[in-house]
């Protein structure tokens, strides 16, 4: 959004809501990576709102997998069968967790309130 668009937004719209409604709007805006104002504008104007995936979580899992693989290679000289099996299970679990991350964006309105 350009600065000229921000300057054009001079009208303030107020809306009252209860705590549950506020929390729901706030959660959906955060999931979409938007401010509450931008989320409400897009909602009111029927514009697309897509939830961003948590890339940080995926990167952290990849980092943990790399560290686990590094430890495995460092322990080759003193590796036992049981220890090798444990390393393998941890790496397998990390790969499974990465694969379970759904990288498909979803509409923010599909996020369920709890």
From TrEMBL:
InterPro entries: Arc_rbn_hlx_hlx, MobA-like, NikA-like. GO terms for molecular function: sequence-specific DNA binding. One of its GO terms (biological process) is regulation of DNA-templated transcription. NCBIfam families: MobA. This is Putative relaxase/mobilization protein. It comes from Serratia symbiotica str. Tucson.
